[in-house]
Amino acid sequence: MANENRVVLKLSGEALASSASDQTIDALTVDRLAREIAEAKESRDLELAVMVGGGNIWRGATGELAGMDRATSDTMGMLGTTINALALQDALESHGQATRVLSAVSMAEVAEPYIRRRAIRHLEKGRVVVFAAGMGNPYFTTDTSAALRAAEIEASILLKGTHGGVDGVYSADPKLDPSATRYETVSFSEVLAKDLRVMDLTAITFCKDNNLPIRVFDLMSPTNLRRSLLGEALGTLVA
Ligand code: UDP
């Protein structure tokens, strides 16, 4: 049974960067996201776990294209997510929000290991849990890791914040097709049949099989993160 107050938020690594600076991690951007999370936690009985990506630092596919061993390159990507997780933890704690980083790859001096029951305990105690290193396996993405952890900890929804200026799921790519329209809700079957870009296919299929709804919303508009954490129906619901 899903816990109604428990939510997993997927933040892409690139959401921590900014076009306004050339920093890999933009402190002002991370601070804004952390502030919205802390505000949402104050205004609602919310149990929040965040899966951070690493695309601002490294993607496994990039190394593979350059001739690297895929598993090694993916491991580099997972380590990148950990750097992002620490940045987010730091920003959350500067806003007074207790946070624990739980890593799927053991690095005892830096983060706690991911243990499902421990993650749930932290959430029950009001701490924000930040998942680092995806699910710890190469060949996977943090989208799929977010879906897996959401199912494991019995979250009621997976919130997927986008950073590319597209505020939900569209019938076609709105940047290429001006007649594309945004769905308020769309079924998993339609997303799969029409190959709509929401998350990678592994993640979508996992959510479909496990009845885990996804809300896709524009993360970059100020207040959107807070509002979506408060349960507002922004963007598109995939269910
Ligand atoms: N990764 C992985 N296993 C996981 C999660 C991530 O191997 O369980 C690697 C993979 O190489 C990926 C990189 O970490 O390209 C960064 O994650 P992702 O691309 O999902 O980050 P995002 O696009 O969300 O920033």
UniProtKB/TrEMBL annotation:
<dbReference type="GO" id="GO:0005524">
    <property type="term" value="F:ATP binding"/>
</dbReference>
<dbReference type="GO" id="GO:0006225">
    <property type="term" value="P:UDP biosynthetic process"/>
</dbReference>
<keyword id="KW-0067">ATP-binding</keyword>
<dbReference type="GO" id="GO:0033862">
    <property type="term" value="F:UMP kinase activity"/>
</dbReference>
<dbReference type="GO" id="GO:0005737">
    <property type="term" value="C:cytoplasm"/>
</dbReference>
<dbReference type="InterPro" id="IPR036393">
    <property type="entry name" value="AceGlu_kinase-like_sf"/>
</dbReference>
<keyword id="KW-0963">Cytoplasm</keyword>
<comment type="pathway">
    <text>Pyrimidine metabolism; CTP biosynthesis via de novo pathway; UDP from UMP (UMPK route): step 1/1.</text>
</comment>
<dbReference type="InterPro" id="IPR011817">
    <property type="entry name" value="Uridylate_kinase"/>
</dbReference>
<comment type="similarity">
    <text>Belongs to the UMP kinase family.</text>
</comment>
<dbReference type="InterPro" id="IPR001048">
    <property type="entry name" value="Asp/Glu/Uridylate_kinase"/>
</dbReference>
<keyword id="KW-0808">Transferase</keyword>
<keyword id="KW-0547">Nucleotide-binding</keyword>
<dbReference type="Pfam" id="PF00696">
    <property type="entry name" value="AA_kinase"/>
</dbReference>
<dbReference type="InterPro" id="IPR015963">
    <property type="entry name" value="Uridylate_kinase_bac"/>
</dbReference>
<dbReference type="GO" id="GO:0044210">
    <property type="term" value="P:'de novo' CTP biosynthetic process"/>
</dbReference>
<keyword id="KW-0665">Pyrimidine biosynthesis</keyword>
<keyword id="KW-0418">Kinase</keyword>
<protein>
    <recommendedName>
        <fullName>Uridylate kinase</fullName>
        <ecNumber>2.7.4.22</ecNumber>
    </recommendedName>
</protein>
<feature type="domain" description="Aspartate/glutamate/uridylate kinase">
    <location>
        <begin position="5"/>
        <end position="218"/>
    </location>
</feature>
